[in-house]
Amino acid sequence: MASRLNPYLSFDGDARQAMEFYERVFGGTLALNTFGAFGDADAPEADKIMHGMLETPSGFTLMGADTPPGMEYTPGTNFAVSLSGDDEAELRGYWEKLSAGGSVAVPLEKQMWGDVFGMCTDRFGVPWMVDISEPAG
């Protein structure tokens, strides 16, 4: 799979409604994963969206999620640019360059869903998410 670059939106508890709205606007295939599916199914946020992805017939990709517990939701800055794919060397190279001189919110390391993932803000204040999946095959 080639690496992909797309917007990633954060929501304040209404990610499901927002992503379903974008699906109606753009068409395509929407996949939603809840916090409960990857953690405590009885937690208050279990039905909230941990990760959603809309892929459209026009080739658009839009990702989004509810802001996790303990993280601040700030309207107007509720986005990041997502880099994802399975070329580990390429994506680690991007991570190293993007995080240099910036700040790291989540170190680039293996996560509970199986991918290597990290979040940083570059030296210009742009937030980035890097997700390295296992190669298909």
UniProtKB/TrEMBL annotation:
Listed GO biological process terms: methylation
Domain of life: Bacteria
Molecular function GO labels: methyltransferase activity
UniProt keyword terms in alphabetical order: Methyltransferase, Transferase, Ubiquinone
Domain Glyoxalase/fosfomycin resistance/dioxygenase: 4-130
InterPro entries found in the cross-reference section: Glyas_Bleomycin-R_OHBP_Dase, Glyas_Fos-R_dOase_dom, PhnB-like
Any single Pfam family the record assigns to this protein: Glyoxalase
Claim: Cytoplasm is one of the keywords in the record: no
UniProt cross-references to PANTHER family, sorted A to Z: PROTEIN YJDN, PROTEIN YJDN-RELATED
Name by which UniProt lists this protein: 3-demethylubiquinone-9 3-methyltransferase
Organism: Streptomyces mutabilis
Lineage summary: Bacteria, Bacillati, Actinomycetota, Actinomycetes, Kitasatosporales
